[in-house]
């Protein structure tokens, strides 16, 4: 049985348009209603910092600090895991500058500074769906790879470091492509490419495991009602070879060979052209058998919503903890029947969802299952 994870308190200081704001939560779902520009998305962005990375907007940390604030921002959250309580603080306030001069993000758990933001994954899983993701199926492949990697991270906490190490090794190889020649350089290429092949193979395997588990869960769910059912597959020669049963050793050998054979090609291109950073996620409307990118805007939204909800269920099953869901403007374009079905699906997941909208009445079907707040010009107050 999954650990029940709930936020009990959120306090923002000098974050976006908030000077200082606090909300005490009782464990139910949370509805944040208010006009556009009031700060609803800013609030759930702050909550998204309960996970590694730069939050649901992928913003620079400096952009999160309230204009005119002298000492960065801070976000405090009290998190309940069944009967245990944890105090989590994160932000740049009082932090030291990094190599680029910008303040670094710090994380403290129960008063102790975390060695890495990845420690947050031991406390909670935070997932989100925002309007900025509406173009996922028609946008660049890099956005879909990032989407896949965040899904993997929710069930495999080691994936974040794996991906960061891969990116660092690839940057080293790209620099070598620009400047390196001679026998010593060949030895450096071989060492870096061996590292890339090992890390890349692990990334491919982790992504494929995510796709397999999620596909099985979606298929087992049958008819998803108002949310179109997605069929997902990873593209790329290495990804397809792995999906058809090749061993990790075979994939690693293939990738190392591709990198070694492609040095001249990559030097001309100025970048590395083989590896998991070239993969893509293909999504089909399962019932219609057509690419998601060719579906109507409404169908794409339904596919993405169904995919995120299915992943939330998978996350609870694999991680052993119920997820915190951040759903920005989720009800705006749904009719009453679809909204009610959405809320029932969210409630069935067993986690805590934070939902935003301009009109509280959009969430009437939630009834007493939610706690309601009014957000106006950087202030948050309970609303009934």
TrEMBL record:
Entry GO terms, CC: cytoplasm
Signal peptide: none
Location of this chain's protein in the cell: Cytoplasm
Main location: cytoplasm
Positions annotated to bind ATP: 34-41
Sequence similarity: Belongs to the RecF family.
Keywords for the protein's UniProt record, in alphabetical order: ATP-binding, Cytoplasm, DNA damage, DNA repair, DNA replication, DNA-binding, Nucleotide-binding, SOS response
Domain AAA+ ATPase intervals: 26-376
GO process terms (BP): DNA replication; DNA synthesis involved in DNA repair; double-strand break repair; SOS response
One Pfam family, short name: SMC_N
Reported function: The RecF protein is involved in DNA metabolism; it is required for DNA replication and normal SOS inducibility. RecF binds preferentially to single-stranded, linear DNA. It also seems to bind ATP.
Origin: domain of life: Bacteria
The protein's name in its UniProt record: DNA replication and repair protein RecF
